[in-house]
Write a structure and sequence with these properties.
Radius of gyration: 20 Å
CATH class of the largest domain: Mainly Beta
Strand order of the largest sheet: 3-2-1-4-5
Number of helices: 6
Number of strands: 11
Distance between the termini: 37 Å
CATH topology of the largest domain: OB fold (Dihydrolipoamide Acetyltransferase, E2P)
CATH architecture of the largest domain: Beta Barrel
CATH superfamily of the largest domain: Nucleic acid-binding proteins
Length: 246
């Protein structure tokens, strides 16, 4: 079976002298792997397109038993320019791509993940300034769109709206508790500014994500809440340059 799909390349590597394996994100397949036989020597079938972070129109063939995918041909649709020369932004993009791969996007969530991936790469390419916490924001947003959305608008117990005020983020339940309700379990104190920041990340396009914070406390509160939430609900933790399953 042969088909055509658009893909964002997450990672590439050699497995024989002239052959390449490609890890990619597709809006129909999710995260998948394919072999590109002879790609290292073929300028006609893969003209300058098999690099990480490129968006490629790919012709893909499934093996007879359906166990493997082969890339037959690729055409470059979009490739980052700024990220190739700005090492800081490239590092932020690489962290986001590693999270996509570790998350393990399936077919059900593929379209949303692909759209978000393109938005994130566009923001890193075009935004005037980008926060060093951009990958942390991305983890929250991707998890939210894949069915792990935290509840940030009101207290889970009494229903009290939390707009303009803070409270406690209860990691196990993935929601907020107001100051008058019992917190329990592992909770992160969230001020009004930190809580509003998480709402912005959850709801707005990556180009609208803030790149500056008013203080260290806001950064720490957001980081503890997101990292705890991702570890508990998604089962991933960032250690030594990789995401590890817990």
């Amino acid at each position: 079976m042969e088909f055509t799909d658009t893909i964002v390349i997450l990672r590439v590597g050699k497995f024989r002298e002239a052959d390449i394996w490609v890890r990619f994100l597709s809006p129909t397949l999710g995260v998948a792997s394919a072999f590109a036989f002879g790609a290292s020597r073929s300028r006609r079938r893969f003209p300058g397109c098999l690099d990480a972070l490129n968006e490629v129109l790919a012709r893909i063939k499934r093996t007879r038993d359906g166990s493997c995918l082969n890339l037959e041909e690729g055409t470059l649709l979009n490739g980052p320019r700024r990220l190739r020369v700005d090492w800081r932004r490239l590092g932020l993009a690489a962290n986001c791509m590693k999270f996509i791969e570790a998350f393990g996007i399936g077919q059900d969530g593929a379209a949303k993940a692909y759209a978000l991936c393109k938005e994130v790469l566009a923001a890193l390419e075009e935004a005037g300034s980008v926060s060093c916490h951009f990958p942390l924001f991305f983890r929250l947003r991707l998890a939210s769109e894949q069915g792990y959305a935290p509840e940030l608008d009101a207290c889970q117990l009494c229903g009290r709206p939390l707009a303009g005020r803070g409270g406690f983020f209860q990691v196990q339940s993935g929601g907020m508790r107001c100051s008058t309700c019992p917190s329990g379990g592992f909770c992160v104190t969230m001020g009004a500014e930190a809580l509003e920041l998480l709402r912005i990340i959850k709801e707005k396009t990556p180009l609208a994500w803030p790149h500056e914070f008013s203080g260290r406390q806001v950064r720490e509160q957001c980081a503890r809440a997101v990292e705890g939430f991702i570890q508990y609900h998604v089962g991933l933790v960032w250690e030594h340059g990789y995401f590890r399953r817990v």
